[in-house]
Amino acid sequence: MYSFLKNLRKQPGFIMAVNFALLMAIYMLSRWFFYYMNIHSFQDVTFKDMMTISWGGMRFDVSALCYLNLLCIFMQFIPLKRRHTARYQKVVMILFLIINLLGVLVNVADVAYYEFGGRRTTATIFAEYGGESNLGIILLNSITGYWKVWLFGVVMILAVVFLYYNPIKRVSRAADFPANRIYYPVHSVVFLLAMLLAISGARGGLGLKMHPLRQDSAELYCKKPVEAAIVLNTPFTLITTAHKKGYQDPNFFAKDQLDGIFNPVRNTVPKGGEMRKLNVVVFIMESFSMEYMGFFNKDRDDGHYQGYTPFLDSLLAKSYSFEYGFANGIRSVDCMPASFAGIPRYINPYCYFLYSNNTLQGLPEMLKNEGYTTAFFHGAPNTTLGFKSFTNSIGFGSYYGMDEYPNKNDFDGTWAILDEPYLSYFAEKSDEIAQQGKPFFLTVFTASSHEPFPIPDKYKSVFTRGDIPMHRSISYADHSIKQYFEKVKGKQWVDSTIFVFTADHCGVRFRDDYNNEMGRFLIPIFFYTPGGQLTAKCDSTRLIQQTDIMPTVLGLLNYQKPYFTFGKDVFDQDSTFVNFVFNDLDGHSMYYLDDLMIEYRNNRLFGIYEYKKDFSLKNNLLEKKDQYPQLPFMQRQMEAILEQYITRMKENRLTAQ
Question: Which pTM does this prediction carry?
Fold first, then answer.
């Protein structure tokens, strides 16, 4: 027996199995660390739930490791006696370490990134950051900004290196092997079995008719979709989305029925009167969650909640705002297709999915055709997130990025020009453009309220309130927006301008009451009109979303031509008005109508919530669905939106023509 065990432990296949088990242990530790570092996002997860999640997660760990190590498995099991030499094993070890250290690195790095993306990273990240000239600085700041993640990652990497199992230290002799007539047949069978197991492990099981594991398979082991991030690991999500296929048509309705239920072509009947050529300035505020703003949270903490945006709170008191404002996505790249082309995110970011080359009917292009000057401002490098190419595709005539900014000393060291100097620059350019005598449509995308949350040294003793770094950077961004309005105050063009404010998406969540499927999307959206075009009001009845920005602006301008959008003009109260919001979290779609929200998963009704009474979405009323007469209408609308989105995306029909 001792001789058998001694011989077994030096078998290349056994070496592979031991090192595979080591990686399984490291991936499981990483899963629990991921949960620990993001525990505020998973507060309903019990110890028993984590046992179920961990058990299910092992399937995804096996799958990812089989994908990553298929070549090493092949090399360790192929029936060649050369495998038993020290030199051969050294080559396998080097290959194994290179591949798996990368896997461990991305898995650990995603612990920090999850807070901003709201899900495990997928292959779309390569499109999202592929043009970053300062990607190395960004990654370095991501590591050093989270010392616990950095420390854990180092420990895991050292564990892979120093615990690697390799007992073969010398050249094997002929006496170490059985006769060829035994060695080759036996090891050939073992090789075939090993490869079969590896391929089955990558697919998620042995069943010939089963589909390979997908991201949505993680929901088998969790109660809420957000918990799927604990089940999954990042190498798996990267590998399985590398060649992602297009949308599958749900076939809810016959094609000739769709437009009669929900039609994304708007304003097909010209309105009376002339177009009002007011200027439009849009502020897209990086990561500005509604939870950060005192104006929208006056009743929280027994009326003592202050928030971190004193200037914007004062501006909101003079604006038309909405108690319920929603993002249509979870990343920066989701905001602009929604706000300027009426295209919400559905499962994948539009800009990085298969259909990103479709023809859009963008708000900048429509206004440019009416004689407007159009320009987009963002203080990051011009390659950032593909913004420049997208703004060009929807009709922005000029792009002002870091390349055009005159003083590079104002760079924050990681992402972009600091907000205060950049918004001062934007104020100067706004006035310069106004002096041309044409109406204008300008957009500025702020940057400083983004990890690593830079604040100039002179303000570090000023903006000290808050529980997390995000709160202080929000205060700095709020101050910077105030400086913009101080600079343009008294300019003649201001009174004939509509200022539109929105966030690109929610930021780091801190408050428990916002930590749910609805809270992930709640952002400020409001209209400030110094010339009095709109009255000051916080509307508690109308719902607004980013896809409503384009049709609402066009309505305020009395635009006369048809256009395409999945949103609505919130001020258009004619018979076609439906007070709805649609958004999606990785295929879990939500539809709000007045006081009710329904949730679809896998194209089926999954949840019903009275969200205004149940802000934290704790009470699923699905079993009481017969009590809601509006439910059939809501389901038809939801299903029609999904089908219109998919069919028009696949057929490249995203314009009014």
Answer: 0.80
